[in-house]
Amino acid sequence: MLEAVAGVRDFFRFGPAQADHLSAARIAVGIAPPLLIVMALGRVDLAVFAAFGSFTGIYAKRETLRRRVIHQSLAGAIILVCLTLGLLCAHAQVGGMTIVLIGSVVAALGAVVAASVGFKPSGSVFFVFAFTSIAALPTPPSFPSGIGVAAATVAFCVLLGYLARILPGMGGGAPVLGGSFTRAQLAWHGGQFLVVALVAGTLGQLTGVGHSNWAMVAGIAAIAAPDAPARVSRAVHRVVGTLAGVAVSAVILGLNPDPWPLALVVIVLQFLGELFVIRHYATALIFITPLALCMMQLGNPLPVEQLVFSRAVETVIGAAVAVGIVMLLGPAVERVTRRR
Asked: How high is the pLDDT of residue 6?
């Protein structure tokens, strides 16, 4: 109960600005050329691979130049592995529950690597999002084209992260080092991600509304926070921000924009989402939610009503699972955390 009260109170707290527009601009530039190039080549089906590759630039925004290059390179490599695994599943046409099972393992392993290395943002949400989204594609592209676009985008984003040293306020900050975790603590940490992803994804499958991967993403995004109050707060932000973002998505997609205007909307939304993601998570999700939906619509158009409804339902499921796990495992988590 105390965690819930703390989560609600934290919802109204807005963090201070820290030159967020600079990193947001860099991340938006990271997606713009690759996305526009594949659009110009007439390969709209590859737009989603450019988008996932651009997630590389989200990592290490406040770190020293050397650590940024290392962390972005490693995060980009993991994203490429997840995309490759997703393509394998897509070409094999595996079932939804199989995607949930594999995605849960990706969530656990990704969280362990992120904790060991000291990734910021923490957790495995981008790895799971990349794998599950590609694995569910009904008509996947070839490996050379899909992974090639993603790899080129990853390299471009790492280069931008390096060149950002010439911008004022973007020369790097304090280094973020990996945590001093024992094997048991890492196993416990990964286990929480495994359980939340598996339960949320399974419940998402049982609802039958589709896109159970969004339940998984919502759940692990919440538990990526460092402690119980922060996790509850993150879940509250996730639900409120996503529901508001779903309304924005319905307006944008309801206009039935052509692929080119939709691609430009994706770039703008990427900038706006990163502008607020550190200061206020719910506000960022007002832009991140339509960003994700517009990304998926570029390569795999679906009825707008089905898309926004499933996003809302699955997000509530994932957030509820995360809060439930926090309440059940809270005392045990606190004991393990104190031993670090």
From this structure: 53
Query: pLDDT of 142-155, one tens digit each?
Result: 999 999 999 999 99
CB neighbour list of residue 33: distance below 8 Å, 6 or more residues apart: 156
Report DSSP state, residue 178. Answer: P
Reply yes or no on whether the pLDDT at 327 is more than 60: yes
Distance CA 51, CA 56 (A): 10
Q: How far is Cα 22 from Cα 271, in angstroms, rounded to an integer?
A: 10
pLDDT in tens, 229-283: 889 889 999 999 999 999 999 999 999 999 999 999 999 999 999 999 988 999 9
Q: Note the pLDDT tens digit of each residue in 204-237.
A: 999 888 789 999 999 999 999 988 888 988 999 9
Q: How far apart are CA 126 and CA 182, in angstroms?
A: 25
Q: Which two tokens stand for residue 141?
A: 């592209």
Rg (CA), the chain: 19
Measured between alpha carbons, how far is 121 from 102 in angstroms, rounded to an integer? 22
Locate 305 and state its tokens: 């009503």
DSSP three-state, residue 26 = helix
Helix residue ranges per DSSP H, 208-303: 212-223, 228-254, 259-276, 281-299
Q: How far apart are CA 129 and CA 75, in angstroms?
A: 14
321 and 224 Cβ atoms separated by less than 8 Å: no
CB 304 within 8 A of CB 250: yes
How far apart CA 121 and CA 61 sit, in angstroms, is 9
d(CA 278, CA 301): 31
Q: Whole-model pTM?
A: 0.91
